[in-house]
Every structure is written in structure tokens, then in C-alpha cells.
Design goal:
Layout (H helix, E strand, L loop, with lengths): L6 E7 L5 H12 L6 E7 L3 H14 L4 E5 L6 H11 L4 E5 L3 E3 L3 H6 L7 E5 L2 E5 L27 E3 L6 E5 L1 H6 L15 H13 L2 E4 L5 E5 L6 H21 L7 H4 L1 H24 L1 H22 L6 H5 L1
Parallel strand pairs: 1-2, 1-4, 2-3, 6-10, 7-11
Antiparallel strand pairs: 4-9, 5-11, 6-9, 8-10
Helix pairs in contact: 1-2, 7-10, 9-10
Length: 319
């Protein structure tokens, strides 16, 4: 194929505890079928992480890799912005440090940009379980573990926002719309930085962000993500984020119903499909049904708490 776009892939990380994940990601980038790629790795908090990535890249001959350190304010958004400033590509992609790319990922990522109406692109993430015994987790709640089977999407479609573990934007977007804002993010601001940036981009450019099912990657799911504490915290902040999204960023939206449309569809699926299936399986696999029921009730309860957190005492929200 004719390679018309240079694709810059920005990866950020802050801990050496994920070195195995980072190495597997770099290996998957090296194996891409599309070769017009540069990789920008931004480390923060520890220079040991920077040194380890540099050493591995040299030993494995990872092509066209820049390894940088975020000397500014720590955080995902600022680390991404460091990478954006160094990116040479006309498309800038972002992936988490614990994903593994399918071999055709880059090739599929650049294709939608042949359409001038497309400003951003996102794709699916499949769970890469730390232990296969974790695979009982219900698909309807894959958003808790940053995977995407909950959507049920199998076709190219316009979407509200890109997903940060698997997304890209035209490089010109950052001149037109600005950078990621460090005051956003889970446990920190009113909503995830990826959601805020996506809504800002769509409002300012009038162009589309599209989901493409062929832009596939695996997203590692560590055991702690299935703990009750993690499920409660992630669900709460997702609910909080959606409330703030609806309250603060509706001005540029064409249809208020559209803004939370995918959440409404998922809620309908939970009540019309998941709950009946749990009832049926409670007779044949009661332990598994109980696990899924517990996750379902916990997640829905804490999403609701987060959504209505403005009615709760400030001390509760700080906790």
C-alpha cells in the first residue's frame, strides 16, 4: 500500500512496575504492517523508566523511537502534551502503556483520515486477562476495565468521544483546539481528559470522531481491576464524569439526548438482557451468577452515587 501519512504514537508511563507491559507494546509496534510510524515514549516520576526503555529499544532495535521525560507538572495530560510537541506525524495517536497492538493497527488507524470530515479516530480494546479465570467478568461492565465489548459496535460510526487507550487525532487539531488539560482526569477533575478534549474538538471544528472496529488492540487487565474497591471507585467517577459532561459541556451539542445516548442504550441492555440471563444461570451456575450480580449491583449503585454527587456532602466526594 502507498503510505501517505506519518503516524506518531505517543505512549506515557510513570512506573517501572509495568516494564513487561511496555516491552510487549514496543514489540507490537515493531511488528506493524504499516511502517510510516514514529514512537514517542514519555516517562515521568522516575528516570529509571526512561533508562530501561532506552536500553530495551537499543537491544531490540525498535525503529524511529524517541524517549522523553516530563519535567513539568506530572499527569497523563501533561505527559501527552510533551509527546505532542515532539511529534512529526500528521496524525498523532495515543495508547496506554499496557496494551498490545494488532499487526494491522497502524494501517487501519490511518485509513479513516482519507475523509476530510474526520478529525479523530478511535477503536476497540479487547481484554488481555492477567489470569484467564477473570474472564467471567460481564461484558456490560467492560468500561470499568477500559475495554469496549459493552458497546456492541461492529460497524464504522460517528461517536461522541475517543477512548484514550486507543485513539488518534489530526496533528492540526492541537493547533486549532489546544492541548489536553491537566486539571481533568479520574479522581482529579470533573471528567476524563479524553472526553473533555473530544467534546472540545468536535465543538470547535464541526468535524467528526469515528469509531472503526478494525483498529484493534488488547488491553491488559490486572487482577486489582476486578476488586470491589476498584469497581466502586471507577464506577463512582464515571457517574460523576457523565453528570459534569451533561451539565458543563452541552453548549456545542446538537442534541442533548445524543450526549448520553450510549449510556442509555447500555442501561437498557443491562436490564433487558443481563438481569434475565443472571436469573436463568442462577439455577445452573449459582456462584458465577452471584459474582456477576454483585458486580452489576455495585457498579450501578456507585455510578448513581457519582452522577448525583452534587447532592452529597463535599466531605463524601473528597473521600
Amino acid at each position: 500500500m502507498v503510505e501517505q501519512h506519518l503516524l506518531s504514537i505517543v505512549i506515557t508511563s510513570y512506573t517501572t512496575e509495568r516494564m513487561r507491559d511496555i516491552y510487549e507494546l514496543l514489540d507490537s509496534i515493531k511488528m506493524q504492517s504499516y511502517t510510516a510510524v514514529e514512537t514517542i515514549f514519555v516517562a515521568e516520576q522516575t528516570k529509571e523508566l526512561l533508562d530501561k526503555v532506552n536500553h530495551y529499544a537499543g537491544r531490540k532495535h525498535i525503529p524511529n523511537l524517541k524517549v522523553l521525560f516530563n519535567n513539568g507538572e506530572p499527569g497523563l495530560s501533561e505527559a501527552r502534551n510533551v509527546g505532542i510537541k515532539e511529534a512529526k506525524g500528521d496524525i498523532v495517536a495515543f495508547v496506554d502503556d499496557d496494551v498490545v497492538l494488532f499487526p494491522e493497527w497502524a494501517e487501519e488507524m490511518v485509513k479513516p483520515y482519507d475523509d476530510d470530515s474526520v478529525i479523530g479516530v478511535t477503536g476497540p480494546a479487547f481484554p488481555l486477562w492477567e489470569d484467564e479465570s477473570m474472564s467471567w467478568f460481564p461484558e456490560e461492565f467492560y468500561w470499568i476495565i477500559s475495554c469496549t465489548a459493552w458497546s456492541g459496535w461492529n460497524e464504522v460510526r460517528e461517536v461522541r468521544n475517543a477512548w484514550g487507550m486507543n485513539m488518534s487525532f489530526r496533528a492540526e487539531t492541537f493547533q486549532t483546539c489546544g492541548a489536553f488539560l491537566n486539571e481533568f482526569g479520574f479522581h482529579k477533575g470533573p471528567m476524563a481528559e479524553d472526553n473533555e478534549f473530544s467534546l472540545r474538538v468536535r465543538a470547535k471544528t464541526g468535524k467528526n470522531i469515528v469509531y472503526c472496529p478494525n483498529i484493534k488492540l488488547w488491553h491488559r487487565v490486572h487482577k486489582y481491576r476486578l476488586s470491589q474497591q476498584f469497581i466502586k471507585e471507577r464506577s463512582y467517577w464515571i457517574g460523576h464524569s457523565r453528570r459534569m459532561m451533561k451539565k458543563s459541556l452541552l453548549k456545542g451539542e446538537r442534541d442533548k439526548g445524543y450526549l448520553l445516548g450510549q449510556e442509555h442504550q447500555l442501561l437498557k441492555r443491562i436490564f433487558t438482557r443481563l438481569f434475565p440471563s443472571l436469573l436463568r444461570s442462577s439455577f445452573t451456575s449459582p456462584i458465577l451468577a452471584w459474582r456477576k450480580f454483585r458486580v452489576t449491583v455495585t457498579a450501578l449503585a456507585f455510578v448513581t452515587l457519582g452522577y448525583y454527587s452534587h447532592l452529597l456532602p463535599e466531605s463524601f466526594n473528597r473521600r
